[in-house]
Model the fold of this input.
Amino acid sequence: NYSEPIPETRIEFELGVSYDVPPNLVKKTILGVVHDEALVAKDPAPDVLLVDYAPSRITYRVRVWTREFGRDDPIKDRIRSGIYYAFARNGISIPFPTQTVVLKETQQAVVDRAAVETLLKRVAIFATLE
Done:
């Protein structure tokens, strides 16, 4: 029951940001967006936590409170959209996942043709083949 014992409920989501951006700037930018969202409660105060140093990004968790639990998806959409534009204005990038692929050259195996023919002739179904 999301309306008990208090009508407020917390909404949270995570997003990744480039390692090039200082965490204080990221948090300040996100909180600026969250504070401007009418459906987000001012008390308890929203917060932004750095939760992981992932392979291609720093992961932040955004936590806000609302009295409109049934509108949690639209609230997340409005906040995420606002963050996107605020990041663009502040030169903060949301990185694409990266993966490094290392290709290794293999040596061609040397095949002893005569040995292969001898082995194949020992197998009954291959014995009659040239």
